[in-house]
Design goal:
- One of its GO terms (molecular function) is methylglyoxal reductase (NADPH) (acetol producing) activity.
- This is Iron-containing alcohol dehydrogenase.
- InterPro entries: ADH_Fe/GldA, ADH_Fe_C, ADH_Fe_CS, BDH-like.
- By secondary structure, the chain is α/β, with parallel strands linked by helices.
- It folds into 2 domains: 172 residues, Rossmann fold (3-Layer(aba) Sandwich), CATH 3.40.50.1970; 204 residues, Dehydroquinate synthase-like, alpha domain (Up-down Bundle).
- Helices cover 46% and strands 12% of the residues.
- It is built from 14 helices and 8 strands.
- The strands form 2 sheets. The chain has a 6-stranded parallel sheet with strand order 1-8-5-4-2-3, with helices on both faces. The protein has a two-stranded antiparallel sheet with strand order 6-7.
- Strand 2, helix 2 and strand 3 form a beta-alpha-beta unit.
- Helix 9 crosses helix 10, helix 10 packs antiparallel against helix 12 and helix 10 packs across helix 14.
- The chain is globular and about 70 Å long.
- The chain starts with 11 loop residues before the first strand and ends with a helix.
């Protein structure tokens, strides 16, 4: 049954070719005058950053820069950004990049005047201290952070390093510029990893959808099928605008309140993944591609009708009414073939992660959840988590 909900969509999304050229006008329109441009560590982003600075300066805005964001963004860099905001009187934070840069920018915008450590902010509680206006020029679709209330950070000041996810409405961006042409030059691996992140969000919410509401299941199936149809095209022809635009359009759907309001949330596989990316510094979407098939193999008997439906409607399996196990197995194998075909791994051993890490990562997952298990619709304890890691070896 549909749950009660309050919907909040404050983001202004500007989508299409060349939309980032209006960044100066849009940022100025929200009352900003001193802008921090926050961006990735790679040299590939610098020409775009230079253009963005130019668009901002054309509108008379004073611009400051802070680069250096890496996958699984570091709290140490975010704290540096907070200090810069206070020292320079910055009133707008603009991310230029993908999910890690978005999440790092959210920390700076929400944490610069936070009384304490934003890392420890209670999940879903409002942030009552001053929050800067913030926006993003998206260069990599996948995380959905451009429309979500969430941010994922890595504490690189402790040993072992850890990741956390904090939720607050104040973390939503005020502006999001999504130009599919900016994704043309993404490396194939990053394109594939980002696309599997989109698929993973849809799959997580698929199993949390309320009973009797077909809309949710159909919406998430549509997202999965759209990505699986367009990703191979984007990899073969990187400047195929239609394929890139289709991916960019559905990328944020599983995180958008218009879609997800009214259902319970409780990501499971993401919580399997976080301890491993925190400890081994692997790419988020890459790890999800490894863990999702193993999770499906382990958990499918807990909701056989929904797993068989997913495997038939999205992963090309034929429905075997006499032996639904066969249907799920075929769907998982087809999903693994797709993952391999787009250049991602399907086993932990392929990325250098061995069984000696499983127990510790399971402990971190349970500890981070704080309730003795992870997941919502399908709950997993430590033993379950270790067993799934073993299936993914």
């Amino acid at each position: 049954m549909l749950n009660d909900y309050v919907q909040c969509n404050p983001e202004k999304i500007i989508f299409g070719r060349g939309c980032e050229k209006d960044v100066g006008k849009e940022v100025k329109a929200v009352g900003a005058s001193r802008v921090l441009v926050h961006y990735d560590a790679g040299d590939f982003i610098r020409p775009l950053v230079a253009r963005i600075r130019g668009y901002l300066e054309e509108e008379g805005l004073e611009v400051f820069g802070l680069g250096g964001v890496v996958p699984n963004p570091k709290v140490s860099l975010m704290r540096e950004g907070c200090r810069l905001v206070r020292e320079k009187g910055i009133d707008f934070v603009l991310a230029v990049g993908g999910g890690s840069t978005m999440d790092s920018s959210k920390y700076i915008a929400c944490g610069a005047y936070y009384p304490g450590e934003l890392w420890d902010h209670p999940k879903f509680a409002p942030i009552t201290s001053r929050v800067l206006k913030h926006g993003v020029v998206v260069t990599m679709p996948g995380t959905g952070s451009d429309v979500s209330t969430a941010a994922v950070w890595r504490d690189d000041t402790c040993d072992p390093e850890r990741k956390t996810c904090v939720f607050a409405n104040e973390m939503r961006f005020d502006l999001a510029f999504i130009d599919p042409e900016l994704t043309y030059t993404l490396p194939a691996f990053q394109t594939a990893a980002g696309c599997f992140d989109i698929i993973s969000h849809a799959m997580e919410d698929y199993f949390c959808a309320p009973d009797g509401v077909e809309f949710y299941l159909s919406a998430y199936e549509g997202v999965i099928n759209e990505v699986m149809r367009n990703l191979p095209v984007a990899l073969r022809v990187p400047d195929d605008y239609a394929a890139r635009a289709n991916i960019c359009r559905v990328a944020y759907v599983p995180l958008e309140d218009v879609i997800i309001s009214g259902q319970v949330h409780g990501y499971c596989v993401h919580n399997l993944e976080k301890p491993m990316t925190g400890a081994f510094h692997r790419t988020h979407g890459e790890m999800l591609a490894i863990l999702f098939p193993a999770w499906m193999r382990y958990c499918h008997r807990r909701n056989m009708p929904l797993f068989t439906r997913l495997c038939v409607r999205c992963f090309g399996a034929k429905m075997n009414y006499e032996d639904p196990e066969n249907t799920v197995d075929e769907g998982i194998r087809n999903l693994e073939h797709f993952i391999e075909d787009v250049g991602l791994s399907t086993r932990l051993s392929q990325v250098g992660i061995g069984e000696e890490a499983f127990g510790r990562c399971a402990d971190i997952a349970i500890e981070t959840a704080g309730v003795g298990y992870i997941g919502s619709a399908i709950r997993l304890d430590k033993e379950d988590i270790v067993n799934i890691y073993r299936l993914a070896r």
